[in-house]
Amino acid sequence: MQKRDQAVLAALVIGLLVGAAATYALAGVALGRTTTTTTTTVTTTFTCPSDNVCGSFTFSPIGQVKVESVEANYTANRYGSAAVTFWVTFENVGSYPGDFAAYALNTSIAPNSSALREVFPPNFPPGITQMTSPLNTSQSYTLLSPYSGDNYYFLLVQAGTADVNFNFTTSAGTTVIAAQFTFQAPTQEP
Predict the structure, then answer these.
(1) Cα separation of 183 and 162, whole Å?
(2) Are 74 and 114 in contact (CB under 8 A)?
(3) Distance (Å, whole) CA 139 – CA 91
């Protein structure tokens, strides 16, 4: 995706989020309630690796954790399908170390997604689970989904846009991410 396309996509996502937030706020005011929500919108400024798809994303809350990038990588898996692995990189921007599990990234896709499907193959072997060391201030870490211990994978069915939600928990709390990816058609391995 060209930088211009990324900027247009980011602007579209920002517009949708602002519109939804305004509608929600107006509904609350009409009912005599007030609500405060903090969301950070991020436009990707780094160059996405050629074999990855970088997503535009928003995350909340602001605090100990800053999400740096959200990426998707797709390659042929052992079943010959175009399997997608998501990578979420975050930085500890707090003033103390944070603890988390290496398998902490939870991922969900819309059940009606035309581009992605979650697949649970039979006899999928369990993988390795591990805990991480504390993440010190200014250090970054990349979480993967599905993780090697998960019993599913994400299948790239066809070209298209997919909305993907992520969350992970550290000792500082839970971070929620809403991302959008635009995938090219999967290629068949020789």
Answers:
(1) 8
(2) no
(3) 6
Q: Give the single-character DSSP code of 8.
A: H
Residues 54-94 have pLDDT tens digits of 888 888 877 788 999 999 988 777 667 788 999 999 999 98
Claim: this prediction has a pTM higher than 0.85? no
Residue with tokens 């990588």: 73
Q: Cα–Cα distance between 110 and 8 in angstroms, integer?
A: 22
CA 26, CA 67: separation in Å to the nearest integer?
29
**Parallel, antiparallel, or unpaired: how do β-strands 106-109 and 140-145 relate?**
unpaired
Query: Phi/psi zone of residue 123: left (φ > 0), alpha (ψ -120 to 50 degrees), beta?
Result: left
Q: Rounded to 5, what percent of the chain is helix, strand, coil?
A: 15, 40, 45
Enclosing H/E stretch for 177: strand 173-183
Beta-bridge partner residues of 173:
170
Cα separation, 187 vs 107, in Å, equals 24
Q: Determine which of 38-52, 63-77, 97-111 has the lowest per-residue pLDDT on average.
A: 38-52
